Amino acid sequence: MKKQLKQNDARNRRIVLNSRPVGAPRDDDFRLEEAEIPQPAKGQLLLRTLYLSLDPYMRGRMSDAPSYAAPVGIGEPMPGGTVARVEASQHGDYNAGDLVLAYSGWQDYALSDGQGLVKLDPAMPQPSLALGVLGMPGFTAYMGLLDIGRPQAGETVVVAAASGAVGSVVGQIARLKGCRVVGIAGGSEKCRYVVDELGFDACLDHHSATLPQALADACPQGIDVYFENVGGAVFDAVLPLLNVRARIPVCGLIAHYNDQSLPPGPNRLGLLTRTLLVKRIKMQGFIIFDDYGDRYGEFFAAMFGWLTAGKVKFREDIVDGLENAPQAFIGLLEGRNFGKLLVRVAPA
Amino acid sequence: MKKQLKQNDARNRRIVLNSRPVGAPRDDDFRLEEAEIPQPAKGQLLLRTLYLSLDPYMRGRMSDAPSYAAPVGIGEPMPGGTVARVEASQHGDYNAGDLVLAYSGWQDYALSDGQGLVKLDPAMPQPSLALGVLGMPGFTAYMGLLDIGRPQAGETVVVAAASGAVGSVVGQIARLKGCRVVGIAGGSEKCRYVVDELGFDACLDHHSATLPQALADACPQGIDVYFENVGGAVFDAVLPLLNVRARIPVCGLIAHYNDQSLPPGPNRLGLLTRTLLVKRIKMQGFIIFDDYGDRYGEFFAAMFGWLTAGKVKFREDIVDGLENAPQAFIGLLEGRNFGKLLVRVAPA
């Protein structure tokens, strides 16, 4: 991606999929395009992106392998959740200046017919939260942990990517429910944050060659809930420690998103199935808005209360400029971000 | 196992674990012993075994690998569900002649203090049913399918070992619930029985090299419930056909019970987890009496009604003589039985 134009009031920049990645996405897989700023017709409104959320699921959309959502077409804008301001409206329900949560993708401006928009309080001091702890990642953590994981006081909950947008919330809710919470994160700085700031009981560095033993030591009573958002070596370390009747919500597998083929053997599939059987474990995948869309209000009320009371903390990792989204996204898949990754596309 | 004594009124024969099997159990892994018939003390009763149930889970008890139940010790009698008659009683709740469901194992006689016994109607025309369609296998089928599988009318249900004690009941209940039911069984004779007698919509031979394609053809709408009691190549064929929100109750993995090490690669564990995620699938292991013991009455009432109305059919494969239990059990793990495998230990 070569062009490095800055956001402006005259032209619409958008970042489109230039080619399907082979393995890890590269800068060349994205392309920055420029076009006229579109004008809203009757019933439409024009959105100006303030914040763009970058999330691991986007890697799946770049591939044309079968998945839960259709792939992005070559030449189409990358999709993504945004916080946007209404610039101009020909829609009865919206006025210029309104703040909305949208799904308008990696671009400066977008037209909308209002479908799928959620109005935000224009006085909201930190509207980016609607993309993080109060949005999709927080909602994913809340429903996956509470509805599938069903943690009970005194149980042990393990969560990987523990300093990330989802994992950080999973662990804090589990602590609020009276669980022992062990995080896994990349590096000592993130681990310190997870324990000192977020209040987890322990946090282990997934780079460590001794992770399996360290995890066993940190979970002397075994593992009752493993919130799966990573896969790979972390899951291998978790598997032998799972307790009878453990629950495994599966919301992501970031360790596998760049896989080009099945990894070498031995084949551990039967070992997993046998573990599910002999320990009567429930393992369940979910896609947050598809499976729990009708419970967003319940989540928002609970999370807003916890935030206001200072019971849930969060951290944002903000990158300035839409033109920097590809590099930021590539870094996300490598674990280079620290907290919820956002692109500030225009000043709020 | 050399001694081939017949059952008699003077001595108690029992089959004990002689050695832990390496791979498939062999005749030498069992030993027939003979001892005095024990006499009941106060509060005890003496049971005489009429029928012994042989079930795949017993393979797990022969190993000392960690599992959901403690292993049988070397020299200890093999465990197993039985239908027995009370020969003598020093227990207030039981009289000589009572018929009971017990867990007295591979032996002619056993003492009991009454714990865990279930009285059967002495006029029951076919008491062996208490070990099959009205017992643990039928209960396993019922709860696994209905509580974890939750089949809806019009959905497609696939079950392996379809002519067996569990699979045959799973498929028939799924038909009663209005599902399309596809069985998988070993050989054309079993497949014919499954379709012609049990009323499944289709049945495929798992020996076929073209099983994956045949299964895809038999499930044009995909698979909504896969009742897992086999594992191995059948599961590999099922995996790509699973629908969004499919459910997989796991009650057994007979294809793996004799495994001595993990099979060669590629490692398909991540593929399974990814499938659970992108299709939001629930996969859950269960152990029937541990997880659903309090719902046996509900099951019994429903199944008794279906049997009486002729809506559920069953088939028993009865072997005569306790001394033949080891060979019959070895055959069970190879799929040589046809229907619920029982040993007739003494005339009813």
UniProtKB/TrEMBL annotation, chains A, B:
Q: Which InterPro entries match?
A: ADH-like_C (IPR013149), ADH_N_2 (IPR041694), ER (IPR020843), GroES-like_sf (IPR011032), MDR_fam (IPR045010), NAD(P)-bd_dom_sf (IPR036291)
Report the Gene3D superfamilies cross-referenced here.
Medium-chain alcohol dehydrogenases, catalytic domain, NAD(P)-binding Rossmann-like Domain
MF GO annotations: oxidoreductase activity, acting on the CH-CH group of donors, NAD or NADP as acceptor
UniProt keyword terms in alphabetical order: Oxidoreductase
Q: What EC number(s) does the entry state?
A: 1.3.1.-
- Which SMART domains does this entry report, sorted A to Z? PKS_ER
Q: What is this protein called?
A: NADPH-dependent curcumin reductase
In terms of CDD domains, this protein maps to:
PGDH
> Which residue ranges does the record assign to the Enoyl reductase (ER) domain?
26-343
**Alphabetical list of Pfam families matching this protein:** ADH_N_2 (PF16884), ADH_zinc_N (PF00107)
Bias-annotated ranges (Basic and acidic residues): 1-12
**Natural source organism:** Accumulibacter regalis
